[in-house]
Amino acid sequence: MENEHGSELGTQEYWESSYNREIRNYKNHGDVGEIWFDEDSQQRVIDWLLKQEEIGKQARVLDLGCGNGMFLVGLANEGYGQLTGVDYSPKAVELAHNIAQDNNLEISYKVADLTQPQDDLGTFDVVHDKGTYDAVSLCPDSPKEKRALYLATVEKLLRTADSLFVITSCNWTEDELEQSFDKFIKYHTIPTPTFKFGGKVGNVVTSVVFKKL
């Protein structure tokens, strides 16, 4: 889905306002907030990672655009110990930090704009993205250039050629992701729900695992 028109979903202001509201809800009601899309995809990715023998519980995992941090909370509850989440919304990072702290979980959170170089983050065995590439694609200002900058950052965040980049998208098909991610090679497709329309079968969301070329 090539969208060069942008959307408020691609602006930092939208997410700051949204997470400001969710922080209030969390403090008042203990509500961790909404899942942007496909609530089950987070668990599908966690279940898949648990089956990968080469990815031990000491793997360094980075969640890009971590939002409320619930993906990392899920991994922490499975025994993973080296977890980092980044988001360009300081309010998202504040909410994620509060949730982890209240659950006595050691998860590191940082504010980071992934369309800029992130030399201070280090490198990781697993880099996870659910919806962040989608949001970058909806940026009203030069989305194509921002996508390229984002992918260049991701490539540098992967520790070795065997490190995994796991992406779930609601905007891009598997073929489109493969075509755009020319510095990566597809390693695995995580099955996601399908639908039938006009005699053709499609996926509601796409979850693909890449490695560096």
From TrEMBL:
Task: Identify the residues that the record assigns to the Methyltransferase domain, covering every copy.
Answer: 57-180
- Major localization class: cytoplasm
A GO CC term attached to the entry? cytoplasm
Q: Which domain of life is it from?
A: Eukaryota
Q: Name one GO molecular function term.
A: protein-lysine N-methyltransferase activity
Looking up Pfam families in the UniProt record yields: Methyltransf_31
Write down the SUPFAM superfamilies for this protein, in alphabetical order.
S-adenosyl-L-methionine-dependent methyltransferases
Query: Broadest EC class?
Result: transferase
Entry protein name: Protein-lysine N-methyltransferase LOC108050480
Which organism is this protein's natural source?
Answer: Drosophila rhopaloa (Fruit fly)
What is the name of the gene encoding this protein? Answer: LOC108050480
